[in-house]
Amino acid sequence: MKRNIVIAAVAAAVVIGGGAATALATGGEDGSAAHRAEVRAADARVSADRAPEDRGGGSARVDAAEAIAAALRHTPGTAVSAELDDADDAGGRLVWEVDVLTGGGEWRQVLVDPADGRVLGSHREHEDDTAEVRSALKGTSVDAAGAARAAAGKGTVTSVELDEDGRVPAWEVETRASGHDDDHDWRVDLRTGEVTRDHSDDDGDDD
């Protein structure tokens, strides 16, 4: 019974404080491996329950630009997109998915923890637009991280992606205002960093 009370207290602490399960776990009456395992399991269940609330990016402590920087430290190259989303490769948990085109022409997706910026893993991807991406970015001065920073004043950035197929190539950035469910789309100029409203999807908002 006492062990169940400790686990419940841990879960409450995670909900209220966003973490600190380890500190409470060591305060239990027994330090057995089984006890610690149950505490970790309770912590994991609470974290899973909190994930949908984080989907808008409001609770993510690592922003898009920081996630891109972490991904590029792990896999040097050019970041072409970054999105805060559920990832199958991370057990369905919320992560930053950063697509990187390496100097050797390989596409990699790097998963970054939005809580602390740790790289959780990476895998190879198969894309066929390498030439188009390199052509669109040639001679430009605003990279993916720069686009995310430029649009940050519009709200919390939840995704940034290169639109190399448009009439005028640009970064497409999606933001969400704190406390709101509506997403807003922006275009960031590849050379100047100017942010303008993207109206291309306005007609499809109700689809």
TrEMBL record:
<feature type="signal peptide">
    <location>
        <begin position="1"/>
        <end position="25"/>
    </location>
</feature>
<dbReference type="Pfam" id="PF03413">
    <property type="entry name" value="PepSY"/>
</dbReference>
<feature type="domain" description="PepSY">
    <location>
        <begin position="62"/>
        <end position="122"/>
    </location>
</feature>
<feature type="domain" description="PepSY">
    <location>
        <begin position="148"/>
        <end position="198"/>
    </location>
</feature>
<feature type="compositionally biased region" description="Basic and acidic residues">
    <location>
        <begin position="173"/>
        <end position="200"/>
    </location>
</feature>
<protein>
    <submittedName>
        <fullName>PepSY domain-containing protein</fullName>
    </submittedName>
</protein>
<feature type="region of interest" description="Disordered">
    <location>
        <begin position="173"/>
        <end position="207"/>
    </location>
</feature>
<keyword id="KW-0732">Signal</keyword>
<dbReference type="InterPro" id="IPR025711">
    <property type="entry name" value="PepSY"/>
</dbReference>
